[in-house]
Amino acid sequence: MISNIIPGLIMILTSFLLPTIPQYFRHPAMLLSVGLSALSLFNGYGTFLEWDILGLNLILYQSDSLTFPFSIIFHIAAVLVIIFSWHSKNLMEHMATLAYAGSAIGALHAGDFFSLFIWWEATALTSVFIVFAGNTKAARDAAMRYLIIQVSSGVLLLIGACLLLYQTGNHNLTVLDLTTDFGIFMFIAFGIKAAFPFLNGWLQDSYPESSVTGTVALSAFTTKLAIYALARTFPGTDSLIWIGAIMTAFPVFFAVIENDLRRVLSFSLNNQLGFMVVGIGIGTELSLNGTVAHAFVHIIYKALLFMSMGAVLYRAGTTKASELGGLYKYMPFTTIFCIIGAMSISAFPLFSGFVAKSLIMSSLGGMGMVLIYFVLFFASAGVLEHSGIKIPYFAFFAHERKSKVKEAPINMLIAMGIAAVLCIGIGVFPKYLYQILPYTVEYQPYTIDHVISQLQLLVFAIIAFLFLVKFKLYPSEIRSTVLNSDWFYRKMLPGIGKPLFKKIGLLTELIYENLRFFFRLILNKSQKFSNSSYIKVTTPSFAATILISILFIMLLIVLI
Amino acid sequence: MKKNDLKSMGKSFTKYILIIGALLILLDFTFHRHEYFSFAEIYGFPAFFGFISFVFIVLLGKWLRKFLMRKEDYYDQ
């Protein structure tokens, strides 16, 4: 019975029932629904549910070696988010979060592009309420922009799916390429959600505006769903290697100067997606394993970092680096968990980032791609800069704090604790992660060459940081806005559009004025004419005179 | 708690990091580090690359502030 239910669907149904459940039992019910959905992980691989509708065969539930690891980590992320938000009584946000996680899990198991489209839009429509939950004007505005962009991605996906069906008669998930028009539509649709360069503005715009707990949920699903979709449909597409490399390098510079630490993490998320996209672009078994492994560990440590910043926001009321510092005294556990997340994302040996990133680096090295290899190596130093050092340093150290704050609530500490244990556990015992990857590849991350090379890079990057701080070369934190690609539609387009529409408005007003003048002229003349004594006998009314005048003008126009 | 906790923590952290850094460089002389690209096998190459990359990122980021930084209420205006 349970084997035929789409994974995640039970979470969505539970989210609808949440208002009827007393507050005290809501979180246990949410956890239970995730647990029931996770039973699907024991079903094995295959196609479990199809639906014939409108002459189409929709594959609603299928699973294979690529969906499996993503499904595991999406369930884990859902559990972490639920525990982290245990203290919150925001019903709307709980409903949205559970339905969002359920939709993302449902999307993983779609076997055709139309089913994928339905879930794709479902994740957009549910997650927008999580952005709304930030409950500030900035959050509401960002939510509207977020919705427009997310739905646009869905529309492009639908166009692609229709073209695919029309041209090939097939609509199942298959490997595509960029020589076809439907391929290009899908590529852009996935690219928007995967935050490709210049399509990334929505991510840094909306995620930091959400609530304390909302950002954690947002960070896990949408972008990784896009990575899954790209890995499924565009493995080995060369352009992805370059796109990914740009994604790893560019956000690094933005993260250096950004003041809001949750926005810094959003830039960092973008950079991490770059590593995964490069792995898809290479398209070998090793690199695709690297992408999946990276997505898996990334969801955990990124959630951990967002949770630590969520805890800081909850207790200190802000995540602006210029207002923080010295929290290590008051939030020691949060500090330790944040540092574990920071060391994981920076890929220190014995932490989860190391065992995943090594797979992608090795596949690049093995193929002799020297330039991309060093762009990613350079980006690794960048990751250390913004996520490894900047986040913990400015939040918890930097300078002494004057006012006291409390340690994070116990539920937050438990969620962060679980994530931290997973980060170290995977780093120390990588074989359990490697076992669930799509391809069987023998790989040993802990060789002396790897470990020493990575440690040298990281330790000397830290020394560089100390050197820059010592000589006061490190940029101080300033309350500011950093321009990003959302500038194009938030400033540039309105900047051009508003005056343009104003001009068009003036022009139409001018035309309208002239027409009115012309009409008045006819009106007056007709009135005079109909009132004159000699015409009254033959002309029945004033209205008829106007009509005749207009007909006469039309006749004139036609003749001219 | 002492008032200059952070300063003393920073000092001891710097000390240990420098010691670890020195050890890592010395370790490089004790064995041949295999890399995918031969020029990366030069002694201390990753250390040098990490240091330079970090400084480059920070200084270029700082310079980019001239073009990318606006007031906090920039989008509200």
Furnish the topology, listing elements before pairings.
The complex is a heterodimer of chains A (560) and B (77).
Chain A: H1 9-17, H2 23-38, E1 46-53, E2 56-63, H3 67-84, H4 91-108, H5 113-132, H6 137-168, H7 181-193, H8 201-206, H9 214-220, H10 222-233, H11 238-257, H12 261-282, H13 285-316, H14 332-345, H15 352-366, H16 370-396, H17 410-428, H18 430-435, H19 448-470, E3 481-482, H20 487-531, H21 542-559
Helix pairs in contact in A: 1-2, 1-4, 2-3, 3-4, 3-9, 3-13, 3-17, 4-5, 5-6, 6-7, 7-10, 9-13, 10-12, 10-13, 11-12, 11-16, 12-13, 12-15, 12-16, 13-14, 13-15, 13-17, 14-16, 14-17, 15-17, 16-19, 20-21
Chain B: H1 5-30, H2 45-68, E1 69-70
Would you kindly provide a written description of the structure presented here, covering whatever features stand out?
The complex is a heterodimer of chains A (560) and B (77). With 560 residues, chain A is mainly alpha-helical. Chain A folds into three domains: 1-234, no CATH class; 236-485, no CATH class; 500-559. In chain A, 70% of the residues lie in helices and 3% in strands. Chain A has 21 helices and three strands. A two-stranded antiparallel sheet of chain A has the order 1-2. By secondary structure, chain B is mainly alpha-helical. Chain B has helices spanning 5-30, 45-68, and one strand spanning 69-70. Chain B has one domain. Classes of the chains: A mainly alpha (560), B mainly alpha (77). Chains A and B meet through helix 11, helix 15, helix 16, helix 19 and strand 3 of A and helix 1, helix 2 and strand 1 of B. Strand 3 of chain A pairs antiparallel with strand 1 (69-70) of chain B, so a sheet runs across the interface.
Uncertain residue ranges of chain B: none
**Radius of gyration of chain A from CA coordinates:** 29 Å
Mean pLDDT of chain B: 87
- How would a crystallographer describe the biggest sheet of chain A? 2 strands, antiparallel
Q: Judging from the principal axes of the Cα atoms, what is the shape of chain A?
A: globular
Number of domains of chain A: 3
- What is the general shape of chain B? flat
Oligomer: heterodimer
Number of strands of chain B: 1
* First-last Cα distance of chain B: 45 Å
Number of helices of chain A: 21
Count helical runs of chain B.
Answer: 2
Number of E-state strands of chain A: 3
Beta fraction of chain B: under 5%
Q: Give a short account of the largest sheet of chain B.
A: none
Report low-confidence residues of chain A grouped into runs of 5 or more: none
What is the total number of structural domains of chain B? 1
What order do the helices and strands of chain B follow? Answer: HHE
Give the integer mean of the pLDDT values of chain A. 92
Q: Indicate the structural class of chain B.
A: mainly alpha
Query: Which structural class do you get from the secondary structure elements of chain A?
Result: mainly alpha
